Amino acid sequence: MSARPNAAVTPATPAFTSPAPAVVPAAVAPAADPAATAAEPVCAGPLPVLGRDVTVPLVTGGEVSYAALDYAASAPALQRVWDDIAAYAPYYGSVHRGAGYLSQLSTDLFENSRTTVAEFLDCRPDDQVIFTRATTDSLNLLAGVLPADCEVFVFETEHHASLLPWQRHRVTYLDAPRTPARAVETLERALADREPYGPALVCVTAASNVTGELWPVRELAAAAHAHGARIVVDAAQFVPHLPFSVRDLDVDWVAFSGHKLYAPFGSGVLAGRADWLRAAEPYLAGGGASRAVARRPDGGVDVEWHTTAARHEAGSPNVIGAYAVAAACKALTEAGFDTLVARERLLIEKVRAGLAEVPEVTVLSLFGDDAPRVGVLSFVVEGWNSSHFAAALSAEYGIGVRDGLFCAHPLVRTLLGGDPGEAGECGAPEARPGERSLNAIRVSFGAGTPDEHVERFVRAVGELVRDGARWSYRTENGRCVPDRG
């Protein structure tokens, strides 16, 4: 009988506790402001994260604590997650087929992690949770299991991870809507006009990685189902900030990445309906995906594939990565989304209010200034190249933000008044200080962000616009960097 990972390993060594299934808070619908609560919770401080004590040098002299404001790219790991991983690491073993004590223990931990993620997402009882490398891997996996005659509908506003995987299928790209209601109307028209009538999939983000704005997922799911289509949601920017309910939103699949959910290592999730996953050939062929393999008399090979999530998890799985994702799910649930959301709303308002005081700053928005959002905002500064501005924030203030097109080129081009069909590169291949470019600056934050980091950012934006950079910069390998002579 396998050892249970929530029991002490031996009396002589420290025990570790695997992430038991989390208790999910009440489902939240993004149709209304999901941050609103009946009683305003008390806002606690930031959750402890790795790197909170790191200092970085300034080109102007001295050092300052690093202000990590690039959560939308990769959030720092929660200290709690790191501690859980460190506690488990001595007991690491191969999973599923090992007879040894540590292998059995690791197998239980891996499968318990799957249960924890399912609870965190409020999945239906028959949904499958598949561990992948990231959101990109999850959506490419789903693209590989779609029926051969499936048509895909995707808005041009998507991150490339959800915009590009469908190339092997018939794809209808939808124009950027300027209101949530228009998004639903656009989808309904496109689905009503499709011919021939067959299987269809809608792919949409839950929260934009460029503007942070929330999309009307429930209404889009209802529209998809009314026209015989299914829907997959890219929740990479949503689940680190708000509770997500597969059951309540009535979506068919959801995908997200661990590295945006305060978990280190390369692990992601695809969760949802099992039928298309079971009917398709494995995403990867190999050990773990196969239940039985035998040679045929004609010299070929007969394979019986698993019908469980293992069907699409060939090879030795990233056990520590899966455990890290589950530990993050549990940590956020126990911290309480009401408290986390309330504090993040204050940070969002602080950033928006500070940027509004600088006339040269334009915050990018698809649905309008009043649209509910998570802690992700993109902007441009009149008279500044975005790469130059981001470089000055880093070199002179110790603030890490992101500049470019954020792997959402058509959306950023549209928001900046360019042609969404125009080819462009992230970064600043021709960037010169003071020269305008069709790139933007993104600031993003979350549960581990101290107030001081946001306050420093707002102050730095005002000072740079008012006084200019205190250092000279040049372009090097497509990036604006301090000129050190």
UniProtKB/TrEMBL annotation:
Gene3D superfamilies: Aspartate Aminotransferase, domain 1 (3.90.1150.10), Type I PLP-dependent aspartate aminotransferase-like (Major domain) (3.40.640.10). Its cofactor is pyridoxal 5'-phosphate. GO terms for molecular function: transaminase activity. InterPro entries: Aminotrans_V_dom, PyrdxlP-dep_Trfase, PyrdxlP-dep_Trfase_major, PyrdxlP-dep_Trfase_small. It comes from the Bacteria. It comes from Streptomyces pyxinae. The keyword Transferase applies. Keywords: Aminotransferase, Pyridoxal phosphate, Transferase. Residues 69-457 form the Aminotransferase class V domain. This is Aminotransferase class V-fold PLP-dependent enzyme.
